[in-house]
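Standup, Tuesday
Yesterday: got the pipeline producing structure tokens again.
Today: sanity-check two examples.
Blockers: none.

Example 1:
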Amino acid sequence: MKETLIKTEKLSKSFSNGGVMQHVLKNIDLQLYKGDFTVIMGASGAGKSTLLYTLSGMDTPSLGTITYGGRAISDLSPDELAIFRRSACGFVFQQIYLIDGMSVMDNILSAGFLVSRDKKALIRHARELCKAVDISEETQKKFPSQISGGEAQRAGIVRALINSPEILFADEPTGALNSKTGLDVLDTLTKFNEQGQSVVMVTHDMRSARRGNRILYLKDGVILGECDLGKYVHGHRARHEKLSAFLTEMGW
């Protein structure tokens, strides 16, 4: 039986827009499991990113609870949430947000120093991660403006993993990349997931979604359905057909 990482009960999120309440998430009951590659899909405006940010503690719910390892993170103070995010979560975004005035390695280490004081161990871990995603020592010394988009996103993934998070959240991580570099990033995420890293990814791209073993479809703030694709197998035609049929059923 799978171990539950995050559980929500009646999770809701609303915003006031010009005095009119917009209900973005509506009474969502959900469990995320250790080791899964969970993909959240849905049309634009369905609430995908809001769900990801709320699950990760980057945003707070309007109603309902979020528990992580049995602890209600929805009740934490802002300072406690910041500690939770730094130690338990990693984040990869469509926009990579590397700091221009710092080398690639310093960008990676800056996130690690928020949690660890052991500089030598942190540098060793960063170099191991860089090697795993084919970021050379030469590239590590460069500034973000001197590297490709694919290299920058892989560096972003390393930065997200530097503190060995329990769960990695990715919001459209290939959205700003061309087909080839996007594929490299997907291969990187898949590689770490196969090594046991839990991943939750928002995407509107079927190629990206096929990497997940569990697909959640969000519509109007509600999880309309989910699809179990099983472990990722490259070039598996039946996997593509199953996902296509599911998305068609969901009205995608």
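Example 2:
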Amino acid sequence: MEPLVSIITPSFNQGAYLERTILSVLNQNYPNIEYIVMDGNSTDESVEIIKKYSSRIGYWQSEKDKGQTDAINQGFSHAHGQFFAWINSDDTYEPNAVSQAVNYLLNHSEVGMVYGDCNFIDAEDRVIGKFNAKPTDYQKLRTGYVHIPQQSSFWRAELWHQVAPLDTSIYFAMDYDLWLRLSKISNIVYTPQLWANFRLHGDAKTISEDDRCWPDMLRIHYRDGGKWWQPIVWKYWIRKLVAPYLKCKRKKMINEQS
């Protein structure tokens, strides 16, 4: 039997997109997936959507949590797979994502995490761009050279158990925190295969709260012994200066399709 893959979806009031996320997991061409949905006590139609697919979901709950990072930690505490991933409740997988990721990890025992390509999509699932995914490693990540689409990353469960739980005080860059931890003890590898879609819409954290990402990254930098004069710090200040332009550019990408 194929190895079990545990996929977590943290969600809160994303009923407009949640069903598409769920179906992108359930409709994978890989037969052995444990799907876990952690809803943060949503007040929209999210719970009804989850219940609609509950017979195919390994575990779900709808309870107040301490935020997305806490929901991810809780979700993986219920997971039993050999490989782990999470996909947020407004993003989607390509149909062959899990099978290709598992195949890669099975054939590269020296690799702890693999990530593929990712498209930007709008609220109506139309492709509006491509994530700039590139190879990186622990040393590059420490400088702020990230280039990993969270939606298309898969890693070995044994490594999660070595580095977990994630820091619940990190609101935005919990994925960056995880990649640092994984890359410090294993190889992380990029493969140019399209595995996921990153939805950009007006209510997404990436649009509405993007200015909280780099401050989180800087907190992690100093937490891990980083110095004020290292590259990630001056990248933070450059990013802070150009943030209004980047935010405007992403909003423009959305508006051009509406």
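Quick observation on example 2: DSSP finds ten helices and nine strands in the chain. Residues 143 and 230 are 7 Å apart (CA to CA).
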